[in-house]
Structure prediction request, 106 residues.
Amino acid sequence: MAELIRVSAQSRSTAVAGAIAGVMREQGYAEIQAIGASAINQAIKAVTIARGYLEQDDIDLAIIPSFTEVDIEGNERTALRMSVFKRPSTMVPPLPTNGSSHRHAA
Prediction:
């Protein structure tokens, strides 16, 4: 099992990205955990930055999010856990169909 990378709202996304890139180079798999919107935002930014760090190594990333319950000082909280994998080179992201590279939820 990979070492758990915990991300808080105060985490520097570039520092977390470096940790993700290092773990991915060594183990090919990482686990990230964040609680709260700001921490989740930092975690997603870190994965995005890590993709850039790993580009020269021909490693791309895919994440699978899930919820997990964690105990913090006797209080149960819901955390977002992200399993980070090397994306197979056969998996190509779909091209935008409407000429736009951005999709927005309704």
